[in-house]
């Protein structure tokens, strides 16, 4: 038995899908202890948008550590925090005409969600929060109450209260506008749904199966919130930080959330960091009401600021993401058309796309075959039926094409088909 078998809890999951011991990583590649290299289409579940050990970020971090810079600062003022705040203001908020206060929560995405929920309830004086079918917001109890997945909810051990789930865009079929339903029940005092403090939404449901909300639907959702005096919270923890081709996933819709939660790739280096962006009029916290020992991860501030300066000073990086997203989408469409017999299809947006299969069993066959050919890729969706390409945003077109060649081969095998076309090369 390995040390992992003897001591690690049975709760581990990714290790079961990728049963090797990884030792090194660079860019879009992982290396195990035997020296075997694996192309990474998982990217730390979206925590490594800028790849592994990016040299610009690595140099900044090493220099900071060598200078004896503050590591742990609670919420005290530090030079590293100031640099991050300045970068967020100048590279992200001001260019987008956004005015938010920034709350540093505990270091995980679910803690940012908990903070947003608490604050929304304080502001509006109401208990209920509305979320959406197939949404995922974390596994602490408040966040879990607004998460749809039965597997995660069932582990709570207690009742999950003060939350109501309503249909996400497309949940009732292409012809149904679920914001009309939401508007109707919120305006009816006999609907059985209490007026909520907030509505929380992911514009692309990462764990829920790459369900991408239509921009018009998002605009209508915002209108519903304004009509009924409800706060709009966008959970951009997985879909943000450039994943969909803009820094925030909601930018193309033109909406103005009251709060935004960010984590995962915010630190840019895989270091824990989470924040809530809050419209200033709603920043009604009293000092220390929501705190955490590790809400001041200065190493994460250093790499986050470096990433904002390096990648977000102009539109070149975002344009490159959109170009690769277009390439990815076209390849996934081709794969689905060639081997799906109309039973499989592409889903998602940006570099957050994948293929939906008939079942989780088929999708699992695909991911296992991919790993056998040195591609790390996972599934999502209520039945794990979606094979999700969550590549590092810095991946080269050549490596992206190589990974998709592997995915095409694995799909053909799982669908009991022969490869019917030559492998596509990067454009």
Quick structural summary:
The chain is of the alpha/beta class. The chain is built from 14 helices and 17 strands.
Radius of gyration: 21 Å
Largest sheet: 7 strands, mixed
| Helical residue percent band | 25-40%
Average pLDDT score? 96
Spans of at least 5 consecutive residues with low confidence: none
Number of strands: 17
Which structural class best describes the helix and strand composition?
A: alpha/beta
User: How large a portion of the residues is in β-strands, by DSSP E?
Assistant: 15-25%
Write a structural description.
The protein has 14 helices and 17 strands. The protein is of the alpha/beta class and 427 residues long. It has a seven-stranded mixed beta sheet. A hairpin with a 5-residue loop joins strand 8 and strand 9 (211-212). The protein starts with a helix and ends in a 13-residue tail after the last helix. The model has no long low-confidence stretch (mean pLDDT 96).
List strands and helices in order, with pairings:
Elements: H1 3-7, H2 14-17, E1 22-26, E2 29-32, E3 37-40, H3 43-46, H4 55-66, H5 79-93, E4 101-104, H6 109-124, E5 129-132, H7 141-145, H8 150-153, E6 163-166, H9 178-186, E7 198-201, E8 204-205, E9 211-212, H10 215-227, E10 231-235, E11 259-262, E12 275-278, H11 298-311, H12 316-339, E13 345-349, E14 352-356, H13 360-372, E15 375-376, E16 378-380, E17 386-389, H14 397-414
Parallel strand pairs: 3-15, 5-6, 5-7, 7-10, 10-11
Antiparallel strand pairs: 1-2, 2-3, 4-12, 8-9, 11-12, 13-14, 14-17, 16-17
Helix pairs in contact: 4-11, 5-11, 9-10, 12-14, 13-14
């Amino acid at each position: 038995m390995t040390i992992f078998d003897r001591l690690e809890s049975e709760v581990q999951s990714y290790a079961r899908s990728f049963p090797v011991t990884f030792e090194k990583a660079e860019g879009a590649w992982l290396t195990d202890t035997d020296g075997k290299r694996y192309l990474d289409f998982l990217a730390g579940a979206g925590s490594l948008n800028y790849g592994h050990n990016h040299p610009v970020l690595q140099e900044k971090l090493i220099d900071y550590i060598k200078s004896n810079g503050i590591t742990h600062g609670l919420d005290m003022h530090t030079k590293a925090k100031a640099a991050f705040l300045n970068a967020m203001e100048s590279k992200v908020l001001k260019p987008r005409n956004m005015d938010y206060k920034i709350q540093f929560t505990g270091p995980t995405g679910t803690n940012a969600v908990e903070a947003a929920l608490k604050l929304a309830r304080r502001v509006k004086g109401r208990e209920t929060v509305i979320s959406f079918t197939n949404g995922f917001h974390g596994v602490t109890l408040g966040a879990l109450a607004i998460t749809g997945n039965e597997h995660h909810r069932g582990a709570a051990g207690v009742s999950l209260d003060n939350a109501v789930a309503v249909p996400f865009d497309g949940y009732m079929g292409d012809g149904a506008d679920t914001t009309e339903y939401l508007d109707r029940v919120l305006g009816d005092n006999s609907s059985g749904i209490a007026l909520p403090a907030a509505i929380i939404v992911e514009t692309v449901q990462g764990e829920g199966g790459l369900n991408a909300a239509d921009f018009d639907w998002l605009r209508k959702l915002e209108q519903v919130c304004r009509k009924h005096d409800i706060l709009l919270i966008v959970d951009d923890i997985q879909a943000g930080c450039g994943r969909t081709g803009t820094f925030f996933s909601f930018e193309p819709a033109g909406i103005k959330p009251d709060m935004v939660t960010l984590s995962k790739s915010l630190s840019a280096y895989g270091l824990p960091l989470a924040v809530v962006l809050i419209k200033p009029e709603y920043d009604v916290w009293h000092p220390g009401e929501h705190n955490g020992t590790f809400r001041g991860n200065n190493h994460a501030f250093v790499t986050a600021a470096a990433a904002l300066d390096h990648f977000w000073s102009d539109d070149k990086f975002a344009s490159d993401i959109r170009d690769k997203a277009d390439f990815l989408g076209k390849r996934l469409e081709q794969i689905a058309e060639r081997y799906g017999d109309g039973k499989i299809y592409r889903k998602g947006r940006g570099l957050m796309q994948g293929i939906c299969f008939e079942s989780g069993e088929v999708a699992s066959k695909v991911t296992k075959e991919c790993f056998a050919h040195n591609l790390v890729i996972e599934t999502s969706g209520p039945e794990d039926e979606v094979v999700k390409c969550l590549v590092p945003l810095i991946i080269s077109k050549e490596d992206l094409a190589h990974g998709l060649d592997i995915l095409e081969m694995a799909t053909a095998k799982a669908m009991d088909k022969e490869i019917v076309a030559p492998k596509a090369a990067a454009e």
